Amino acid sequence: EIVYSAEQLAIPKEEIANKVEWLSKLLNLEGLLDQALANLSGGQQQRVAIAAALISGAKILLLDEPTSALDLDGATEVLSILKTLAKEESVTVLLAEHRISKVLGSVDSVLVVHGDGSVTKGKPEDQFNDARFAPPIIELGQRLGWKPLAISNAEANKRWIEAPATFQALSANQPHNLVLKAEELVVSFGNVQALKSSSFELFGNQITALMGDNGSGKSSLCWALQGSGTITSGVVSVLGQDPRDLSPQARLSVLAMVPQRAADLLFLQSLADELHESDEFAEVPAGTTASIFQQLAGRIDTSIHPRDLSAGQQLALVLALQLVKDAPVLILDEPTRGLDYAAKRALAKQLKNLRATNRSILLATHDIEFVAMVADRVLTLVDGTLVSDESPIVALGAGSSRASQIAEITATPGLITIEQVKR
Q1: The predicted structure's pLDDT at residue 15
Q2: Does residue 380 contact residue 371 with C-beta atoms inside 8 Å?
Q3: Model pTM?
Q4: Do residues 64 and 96 make contact, with C-beta atoms less than 8 angstroms apart?
Q5: N or C: at which end does the chain have fewer Cβ atoms within 10 angstroms?
Q6: Which helix (H) or strand (E) holds 398?
Q7: CA 206 to chain centre
Q8: How many CA atoms lie within 13 A of 356 on its CB side?
């Protein structure tokens, strides 16, 4: 994979060999060169892609959402490599990214592409004054009047220690009736056990986050719960019914799901057709789905083909198609991938509104900040095994390996979201 582009450019074999040796050391790929790509982690695959791009001798590297599908370790790994390339190899790196809280401390300047197509450039602390793009660290500085704004966790922590603010405790949301029960669930693909014997329950009026590294079994579990995925052994019950025993139409009435590849659910010729069909299928007033979609993605020409939408817009559309359904259980697999902060806030509001109607919502996600924003409970998968069932305060709090940015900055027990901090 790495040498392919160099071969197409007719670079001499000896030069290619030298470059492969250099890149494998630089990108920590030594020992992986003989591995099949399918056997590599998400972070490792991203490093291979970077090596393949650089072997031609290019000094400008463009990356489009390189961390969007990666877990915390994978994203950290890729960002560390990019910093090394910029600082030590004089590579110009242009990074299009929505996970701003992770990249903010690594960038030298920021370009913001506005809705009207205009572009502004400046220092990170200046560009992120716009709340639509602001990660928690910037929102914290704005809320507490820091001037200039802090853009690194270390600087923000220093400011917090000098003048800590008061905060309110997260109010516990009380779960209602049992909606879904999984008992000793096992999912295997050939000799690979993707999900080991796992049992848990989901309740109405509750948002549950399912977290874990890439390959931990999150998607396999989601599809097993939905009823159309593989179940090797064990039982799933949704309001007393096994989803596998239901027709596709009946299954949608009890459980709606947004898969990781959202575009797989888009079939019609225009955005308008998708929105209209959704309203009719869900038997809701005309324009209901369009209203949800607009809150998530803004105003978009409805004559456009769904496949011509951006990845984030496609996800917003499929979210709207599923959110309008009246199913008591909603499963979302990586629902914030490709969404900016404004869209995430709109999605959080929608999910909380749905929770208030006694829905049970399961989010499979790597998005720590979004989990801190909406979740009542956090389940963690490690290598196919359900290892913990915790409150967000514990799972994402100070000292946790998955601490939210606010928890990292403040190191204050019980504080994980910007909304808790009093002005």
Answers
A1: 93
A2: no
A3: 0.85
A4: yes
A5: C
A6: none
A7: 20
A8: 6
